[in-house]
Amino acid sequence: MNKKQASTIFLILGMVSLLIGLGSDNTIFSYAAIAFILISLVLGGRWLRPRKR
User: Fold this and answer.
1) How far is CA 47 from CA 2, 22, 24, 43, in A?
2) Is the overall model pTM greater than 0.85, yes or no?
3) Per-residue pLDDT at 13
4) With DSSP H G I counted as helix, E B as strand and the rest as coil, what are the percentages for the chain, rounded to 5?
5) Do 21 and 32 touch, CB atoms closer than 8 A?
6) Residue 1: how many other CB atoms lie within 10 Å
7) At what angle do helices 3-24 and 27-44 cross, to 10 degrees?
8) Which residues contact 28 (CB under 8 A, 6 or more apart)?
9) What whole-number distance in Å separates Cα of residue 50 and Cα of residue 48?
10) CA of 36: how far to CAs of 4, 20, 23, 53, in Å?
């Protein structure tokens, strides 16, 4: 599995966790969603690269 696929999987897991957390009013799922989305951003790496001019 490459980083792009892992980034997509973590993003989907984050969104699902966020929906479960908001629906059940459970803060653990909300914190897990934040963690999954941050991992997705780090693995994706787009926002860490310098911009091409």
Assistant:
1) 18, 27, 32, 10
2) no
3) 92
4) 75, 0, 25
5) yes
6) 6
7) 160
8) 21
9) 7
10) 14, 14, 18, 31
What are the pLDDT digits (tens) for 1-53? 677 788 889 889 999 999 999 899 888 988 999 999 998 888 886 666 666 77
pLDDT on residue 16: 94
As a whole number of angstroms, the distance between CA 36 and CA 10 comes to 5
Number of H helices, E strands in the chain: 2, 0
The tokens for 23 are 């629906």
Record the tokens describing residue 33, joined without a space: 């969603």
CA distance 3 to 8: 9
Q: Residue 42's pLDDT is what?
A: 86
